[in-house]
Structures are given as structure tokens and as C-alpha cells.
Design brief:
Layout lengths: L7 E5 L4 H12 L3 E6 L14 H10 L3 E6 L5 H14 L5 E4 L14 H26 L5 E6 L22 H20 L5 E7 L7 H5 L14 H13 L2 H4 L3 E3 H7 L23
Parallel strand pairs: 1-2, 1-4, 2-3, 4-5, 5-6, 6-7
């Protein structure tokens, strides 16, 4: 019996990278997974490999249960359609993973307002809309888990003067969104605590070599010693949605911190949460 046996989970951004890895592990642990993103077929994305079709095929080949449902999470109507389809296929939602993200990495002086607003729609407003829809399923049953995927970009540069060695250049917009998500996580966790619903937030301790991270030159790939395996994010994401409410709700944390705490990381931890301080919310 798996940790998520017969649970219904929605994982956004499941066509590649962290979302794909989380969907695969959840299915392995018995969840019935709705994999959602905009890319249904391979080759539809102009820049990145991966698709819902590939993710679902892999899950089914491994004996899991998953269904692809396309959704542009920036659209409230499409988010509502996603939940309607989930109800039709599997039933009420037990677990929601807000992983879908859009990044441009453009300096503020060059940022087009329409792109700035669309980024906020996907990275911050969508988790609100999807969480609100999930709560309609979770509150009446007094159970459920919402996991938001954040980023080290949420950690600000601190007070100046500055040396010009920013960790991620052009991440003002993305960092602001993720910082807001971390505050939203703890606020929502407090609101729904008495309803028996956990709300947590997870970031990689070190960059994960996803197709997007490689494309933006944040890492050179799987062999980069300055990266961590995507499986570490998936394993941490499983713990955060299956551990008892009072152990985890309100956590804003990092992959290696979670794995170290549960004795699953056999080496010394590194990156955010270890040799680098995490965000302010992760310290609370």
C-alpha cells in the first residue's frame, strides 16, 4: 500500500522537470494523478522537451494511474474546467501541487508590462485560484494537502552596496512572485489549519537540471556538480503531503533540509538551508 493510495492529486507543470518527477512518484505511491500543463504532445513547446503525453505514458507503463488534462493556469475559466474534469475522471481532490511556472529573466528596465502581468498570473495568481478550488473539495472532508513549489529566487539580495554578482540575474519579477507565494503559504496554512488541511512550500536546495534550468544556463545538466537530482524534490514533495498536519503545515523549506530531517539524505546537505540562509519565511 502506497503513501497516497487511492488519493486524487493534481500536479501542475507536469509535462517536464520537477512536476513530472512529482507526478511519477505520487502515482508510484498509489495516487490517481491528473497531470496538467499546456504542452500535450512532444514538439509543441518551441524551446523545451517534454509533454503531458510522455509523462502519462511513463506512469502507465510503470503500472500507475494518470490522466493528462491540458490547462492554461493563467485562465480562471480553464482552472475551473481542470477541476470539473478531475471530478469527472477521479472525484474530489486530495492533493494539489502548484508547480507550474513561467520565467523570463528580464531586467526591470526591459520588462514589458504584459509579460510582467502574465508571469504574475501564472506564478502567483494561479496558485490562489487553484487552491481556492481545491479547498471546496478539502474543507467539507476536513483533510487535504496543498504544496506550493517555490525557488531560491525568493531570497532577496539584502541591503546594498552590491558587488554585481547576483545569483540569478533578471529575477526581480520571479523572485517577488515566489516571495509572495511563501507568505501566501503560511497565511493559508493558518486559515485552514482547523479544517485539517496542510499547506506547505518547497524549493530546491540547489538548482535542479530541468529542461528550463538548462535552457536558461542555470546549470549545465545532470553532470553539473552544482546541481541536485530532481528525485530529491519529488521525495521531499511526497513527505510534505503525507506527513501529519501538525508536523509540516506552514513549512517553507528546501529539498535537502526535508530529506536530512527524515534521514533520507546520506551526505551532508548543501545549498539553501545549509551553507546559505533560506528566505525569511523559511526561518519562521
Amino acid at each position: 500500500m502506497g503513501k497516497l493510495d487511492k488519493k486524487v492529486a493534481i500536479v501542475t507543470g507536469a509535462s517536464r522537470g520537477i512536476g513530472q518527477a512529482i507526478a511519477e512518484l505520487y502515482a508510484k505511491e498509489g495516487a490517481r494523478v491528473i497531470c496538467t500543463a499546456r504542452t500535450l504532445h512532444e514538439g509543441e513547446h518551441k524551446l523545451l522537451t517534454g509533454s503531458l503525453e510522455t509523462t502519462v505514458a511513463g506512469i502507465k507503463k510503470a503500472g500507475g494511474d494518470a490522466t493528462a488534462v491540458t490547462c492554461d493556469v493563467s485562465s480562471e475559466a480553464e482552472c475551473e474546467k481542470l477541476f470539473n474534469e478531475t471530478h469527472r475522471i477521479y472525484g474530489p481532490v486530495d492533493v494539489l501541487v502548484n508547480n507550474a511556472a513561467l520565467t523570463y529573466f528580464i531586467p526591470v528596465k526591459d520588462y514589458e508590462p504584459r509579460k510582467w502581468k502574465r508571469s504574475f498570473d501564472i506564478n502567483l495568481h494561479a496558485p490562489f485560484i487553484l487552491s481556492r478550488l481545491a479547498l471546496k473539495d478539502m474543507i467539507p472532508r476536513k483533510s487535504g494537502a496543498i504544496l506550493n513549489i517555490s525557488s531560491a529566487a525568493a531570497v532577496g539580495p539584502g541591503r546594498g552596496p552590491y558587488k554585481g554578482d547576483a545569483i540569478i540575474r533578471g529575477a526581480v519579477c520571479y523572485g517577488a512572485e515566489k516571495a509572495a507565494m511563501e507568505r501566501m503559504t503560511q497565511g493559508l496554512a493558518e486559515e485552514v489549519y482547523e479544517d485539517g488541511i496542510s499547506v506547505t512550500c518547497l524549493s530546491p536546495s540547489v538548482v535542479v537540471p530541468t529542461p528550463g534550468a538548462v535552457h536558461f544556463h542555470l546549470t549545465s545538466g545532470d553532470d553539473d556538480p552544482n546541481s541536485e537530482p530532481v528525485e530529491w524534490m519529488a521525495e521531499s514533495a511526497l513527505l510534505l503531503v503525507t506527513e501529519p498536519l501538525d508536523k509540516v503545515t506552514g513549512w517553507v523549506t528546501y529539498s535537502q533540509v526535508v530529506l536530512k530531517q527524515y534521514g533520507m539524505l546520506k551526505k551532508e546537505g548543501r545549498g539553501f538551508g545549509f551553507d546559505r540562509k533560506g528566505s525569511g519565511y523559511s526561518q519562521i
